[in-house]
């Protein structure tokens, strides 16, 4: 396949990215505004030999993709806020058992049924802390249709590499927006595949604590018979109540992400070199923020933008460095203030931090950002 | 010399003692399941056992297959993904009455509706054992448990009827007393291409027996012996005689298109469509290129 120019929706770009990354199983349940992902997957997957199934609910969807991933197939599901809440137990299971899956959450207004057709960024904290217990996962937020394509591929690559569930946090605006995308030749895309064991079955430890905390994963049916359980388990995958084993397992789950932060974390800076005012925005809001930066730069105001691409783990170090240099920080998000807490947490230079929030279902406009910055002297 | 069956199929060195109480029926079911798999001569690497949460679901840790111990109520949903991911696997779901019909009721009926090739071994002890004897959806009306001390005001599920109505292609029921029948029924269920259910009444002397004053394990097994009536002998008894009896045996067995096979057909159809689409695209582009070439030629002339 050669390079192809397409005009498409964010949701469709997500499915193209998934297929390019090697996704061959999708289980989902219809929910606005993510339904187009299911529709496109049901059409595209069989054409490349993959499988699509519409499950009875979101709990079953996450369960089915974990099941398929255990069989060695790259799998994904897509949903929105209410369905994402239902999936949380399954996400915790995938964290504990270290099974790679990708969950797309096209965020809509909440809580509860909320605003099904309106944009929001209300699931940022749910993505990180939705399931119970200490756990570590990765969440990515795209700002355009094109980036949705590439971040979906990245989501699969990270998931396969670190054996961890990865959440792609799109917002309704990105999901339903149509833009031009140049799809590359799929054979040129870098695709990561999970490590499989090279030792004979009798030597295989399914949860062995290796130097980088990532253990090769044997698909079911390949001769490596082992136990997978959501109970806290030892290196052999069997339930344990031994304090030493429990701590080792919990540390493994943390350290495989924490120690690879520098490889996982991703962000974009925009006119930040000489900025004294910093806007922090992600997802579709970052587009308004960029417009605002350009507009204010035209008026010789030194404004810059920091856009985290990986929301979790949050690119703390990079932002801390930037915050040293600026006087004021504005955090623009389509909720009552969620990621701002993360920024307040790492802030140790006594900078003023302002939130620019909107939660009426409409996008934050460049003007709203500009006027807020002008107001706060 | 042939190795004893226990050493061949159990993780004998690693995983014992087991969690089941003395007198529990689940071990009998495990033995029966292993004998059935052995008789069918299935490759251990191609057997995947998926279980949920509960006493019965702990079985997966003890048997030497590909074992997946999942979330409460969700084993059938996990099994659906696993089966689609690798259709060569014989997927067996180990579940209990609470796991399959309370929290997992939705997945149970929908997997039956799809008729996906999964074998569900449902151990029905009419109580939540692991959490300490609460009533379950199969506790009879008036039955007692730690959450219904003066008797259950609710009515129980008839699991085989539920499965048949939902579209399962093989439905059978037996008890922990009728072991040879259990071996046979499990074998039949695994061989059936489609959603198969074997419901097994399994005694819980620790909680169900205690709360309902049904005595110890032998007494409970005796109850199964005396009150179970083979479904084939249904007509031999008068309605009065059948009043406090329950049926065992094969309730339902029909051949029906199986989901994974049906989906393979979908893949085939869509791939043919895709090929045709690409061919017509290629032809169209060839034609337009041909025209262009002609045009440029005439232009030159």
* CATH architecture identity of the largest domain in chain A: 3-Layer(aba) Sandwich
- CATH architectural grouping of the largest domain in chain B: 3-Layer(aba) Sandwich
Largest interface: A-B, 44 and 42 residues
Q: In the residues of chain B, how many domains can be counted?
A: 2
Largest sheet of chain B: 8 strands, mixed
Structural class assignment of chain B: alpha/beta
How far is the N terminus from the C terminus of chain B?
A: 91 Å
Query: What is the CATH top level name of the largest domain in chain A?
Result: Alpha Beta
User: What helical percentage do the residues of chain A reach?
Assistant: 25-40%
Question: What separation lies between the terminal Cα atoms of chain A?
Answer: 54 Å
How many structural domains does the protein architecture of chain A include? 2
Radius of gyration of chain B, taken over Cα atoms and rounded to an integer in Å: 26 Å
Structure description:
The complex is a heterodimer of chains A (377) and B (301). With 377 residues, chain A is an alpha/beta fold. Chain A folds into two domains: 4-188, 3-Layer(aba) Sandwich (Rossmann fold), CATH 3.40.50.970; 267-375, 3-Layer(aba) Sandwich (Rossmann fold). Chain A contains 13 helices and 16 strands. The N and C termini of chain A lie far apart (54 Å). In chain B, helix 2 (26-40) crosses helix 7, helix 4 crosses helix 5 (105-114) and helix 5 (105-114) crosses helix 6 (159-166). The relative contact order of chain B is 0.12. Chain B starts with a helix and ends with a helix. Chain B has two domains: 5-256, Thiamin diphosphate (ThDP)-binding fold, Pyr/PP domains (Rossmann fold, 3-Layer(aba) Sandwich), CATH 3.40.50; 258-301. By secondary structure, chain B is of the alpha/beta class. The longest helix of chain B is centred in the last third of the chain and has 42 residues, at 259-300. Chain B is built from ten helices and ten strands. Chains A and B meet through helix 3, helix 4 and strand 10 of A and strand 2, helix 3, helix 5 and helix 10 of B.
